[in-house]
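Tokens in:
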């Protein structure tokens, strides 16, 4: 079983990529936000879910162990396949999924492709108690998670979104979620400008 791959990104698609290591190129399925966050020629480590079926072997890659763990938990739910689980992670992110389960809010899955109302309710029921609830976090931690989840919902990669929120919190620690979201978007915009100028 392949648990992780460290190598160079040689090709990127909308929701997949090829990462090369030791002369071998591995085709890996990823979330759309991860694909957008990476560049060809970049060295990167991906945490891998290696799905083996009778007629195929498929790799699903994640940029954090938390994403991989959430993906594996989703795949353990009856009726949720790897592609649907990947869609949930890509749309809600780890924090969004944890919030949906902790608050029993299956409506959060409406925007997830391939997940119907019945499956959404089953996910919430099956994963209750298995994911960390935001309700046990400090107010600032909860705010960070909420705004990060909102940015992921807008299409930003989870790691970049979280860093932007953390940077915005340092600059203005006592703000509303909406103000913090604006500040984080400004951080992301500034980061993109720096990359473009380089």
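Residues out:
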């Amino acid at each position: 079983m392949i648990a992780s791959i460290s190598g160079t990104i040689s090709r990127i698609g909308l929701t997949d990529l090829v990462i090369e290591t030791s002369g071998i190129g591995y085709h890996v399925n990823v979330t759309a936000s991860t694909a957008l966050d990476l560049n060809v020629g970049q060295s990167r480590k991906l945490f891998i879910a290696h799905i083996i079926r009778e007629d195929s072997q498929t790799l699903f890659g994640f940029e954090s162990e938390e994403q991989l763990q959430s993906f594996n938990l989703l795949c353990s739910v009856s009726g949720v396949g790897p592609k649907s689980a990947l869609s949930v992670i890509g749309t809600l992110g780890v924090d969004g999924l944890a919030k949906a389960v902790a608050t029993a809010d299956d409506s959060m899955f409406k925007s997830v492709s391939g997940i119907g109302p019945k499956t959404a309710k089953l996910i919430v029921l099956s994963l209750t108690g298995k994911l960390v609830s935001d309700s046990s976090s400090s107010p600032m931690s909860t705010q960070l998670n909420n705004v990060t989840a909102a940015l992921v919902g807008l299409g930003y990669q989870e790691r970049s979104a979280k860093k932007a929120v953390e940077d915005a919190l340092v600059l203005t620690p006592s703000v509303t979620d909406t103000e913090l979201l604006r500040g984080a978007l400004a951080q992301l915009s500034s980061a993109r400008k720096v990359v473009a100028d380089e």
